[in-house]
Structure formats: structure tokens, C-alpha cells
Design brief:
10 helices; Receptor-associated Protein; 281 residues; elongated; 89% helix; mainly alpha
Length: 281
């Protein structure tokens, strides 16, 4: 009788503990979905890539599980945990990387577009007509953003608000400068053709300066990449040459801890190096 009561209490405790863990896990998943997945979907929508929120959430965990299982089968449990963690954050990092590439392409297009709009204004076209002409001739992403802005203005949205919405969607500092200058010129008056030429020249010079800085800091980035990859390369080489020494470490909790601390140290060093060589103009 006493044994049965003990087992019943033990089962009840485990059941309640499981419910608490399940409830906290579901809350964490909901917070993750609301904070990160919604942000990723919003960023994709701003880049004219329309993906359902639930699809992004499912693909995120499928990628995490795939990398975790693949790493565990190929290199052990420790590698599986590390790759699973990488897969958890990989979609968000990919979205941010794609957004960065899109902004850089937009900025390169903006330099020439400002010159085109300046010429169109000098030829006697209105600002909206100049935007329509540029939108027809420009490829994505600038053509997409200008077309959407023109549609908003045709639906009755004021020019200033439509330009601010475009700047908010794109997230480009160069476009923010252009939009702010345009709105001020529309309110106070001024030669917008000359203003666009000046902004285009400023953006072009800043791009040239950024190119020089990237060339100068390329050596530091390469050194950081080499130093960061050396521990992993040495581990692979030692595992191939002396597997009798490496395998016990990879199959022991102490070895997993050493590998985990090594990865954390490498990641921290890489982030610090990138912050040092990443000079914002």
C-alpha cells in the first residue's frame, strides 16, 4: 500500500512538473513568434517578399531540427547542439543579411536616380512626374519602392507622408537624407534640381570613402577569419591524425564543455574584431 501511494505521488509530481515545463515552453515559443518571427515577416514584407507568419515559424524549427540531427549524426551530440542553436537564429540572420544587401543596392541606384530626377525637374516636369518616369525605368528594389510611393500618392496620401513611409520601409540613411531634404524644400521652397545634384554628389563621395575604408580594413577582417577558423581546423586535423586522443573528449561531458567554451570564445573574438574594423562613415 505504501509503495502504491509513493508511486502515485511520484507520478503526480512528475506530471505537474511536466505541465509547468510545457506551459513555460509554450509561453517562450509565443514570445519568440511575436518578437522575432513577426519582425522577420515584417522585414520580408517591406522587401516585397510576402511569406506567411506560420510558414516562417515552422521553417525555423524545421531548419533547427535538421541541423541538430545532422550534426549529432556526423560529429556527436555536442556538434548537434551547436548546429541546432545556429539553425535557431539562422533565418533571422539571413533576413537581416538580405535586407542589408537590398539597402546597399538601393543606395547605388539612388545616386543615379537623383541625377535623373534633377534632369527631369530642369526639363519642366513636376516632382511626381519625375518620380513616375524614374519608377518606370529603374529595376528593383528602387523601382518597386517608387511605384508603391506613387500609388500611395494617387490614393490621396500627401507627398510628405508617402516619402516618409518609403524611407521607413527601406531603412536607408541616404534615402532618409533625401526625403528630409525634399520635404523641407517642398515646405520652404528652393531649387530641388540643384538639391538633388548636391545630395547625389555627397552620397557618391561617401560611397567612395566607404570603399577605401573597406579596402584598408580587409586585412584585419581576413586575419580575424583565419584566427577564428584555426581552432576548428586544428581540431579536425588532430581528429584525423590521432582519433584515439580526440574521440574520448568528443564523447565526454567535460569535452563538450571545452568545445562549447571554445566556440563561445571564438564567436566573442570575431564579434570584437568586426566591431573594431567596422568603421561607420
Amino acid at each position: 500500500m505504501l509503495t502504491a501511494v509513493t508511486l502515485l505521488l511520484l507520478f503526480g509530481s512528475v506530471f505537474l512538473f511536466s505541465l509547468i515545463i510545457y506551459d513555460n515552453l509554450m509561453k517562450a515559443l509565443r514570445r519568440y513568434e511575436e518578437k522575432y518571427v513577426v519582425q522577420s515577416v515584417g522585414d520580408l514584407s517591406n522587401m516585397f517578399l510576402f511569406v506567411d507568419q506560420r510558414t516562417v515559424f515552422v521553417l525555423n524549427f524545421c531548419l533547427m531540427g535538421l541541423l541538430a540531427v545532422g550534426g549529432a549524426l556526423l560529429a556527436g551530440v555536442g556538434a548537434g547542439l551547436v548546429l541546432g542553436l545556429v539553425g535557431f537564429f539562422l533565418p533571422l540572420l539571413l533576413v537581416r543579411y538580405y535586407r542589408k544587401l537590398r539597402v546597399e543596392k538601393f543606395n547605388r541606384q539612388l545616386v543615379d536616380v537623383l541625377q535623373q530626377m534633377s534632369g527631369a525637374l530642369k526639363a519642366g516636369l513636376t516632382f511626381q512626374q519625375a518620380m513616375e518616369q524614374v519608377a518606370k525605368e529603374s529595376p528593383a528594389p528602387l523601382g518597386q519602392e517608387f511605384n508603391l510611393t506613387i500609388r500611395e500618392m494617387k490614393l490621396g496620401l500627401p507627398l510628405e507622408e508617402a516619402l516618409i513611409n518609403m524611407a521607413r520601409r527601406v531603412g536607408s540613411e541616404d534615402l532618409d537624407l533625401t526625403v528630409t531634404s525634399t520635404n523641407i524644400a517642398k515646405q520652404l521652397g528652393g531649387n530641388m534640381a540643384e538639391m538633388f545634384e548636391t545630395i547625389s554628389a555627397v552620397i557618391r563621395k561617401r560611397m567612395q570613402l566607404e570603399g577605401k575604408i573597406k579596402a584598408v580594413t580587409a586585412q584585419g577582417k581576413m586575419q580575424g577569419a583565419i584566427v577564428s577558423m584555426m581552432p576548428l581546423a586544428m581540431g579536425i586535423i588532430l581528429n584525423m591524425m590521432r582519433p584515439d586522443l580526440m574521440q574520448p573528449m568528443l564523447h565526454h561531458p567535460f569535452g563538450w564543455g571545452v568545445v562549447g567554451l571554445t566556440i563561445i570564445g571564438i564567436a566573442t573574438g570575431w564579434v570584437l574584431i568586426m566591431r573594431i574594423v567596422n568603421i561607420d562613415v
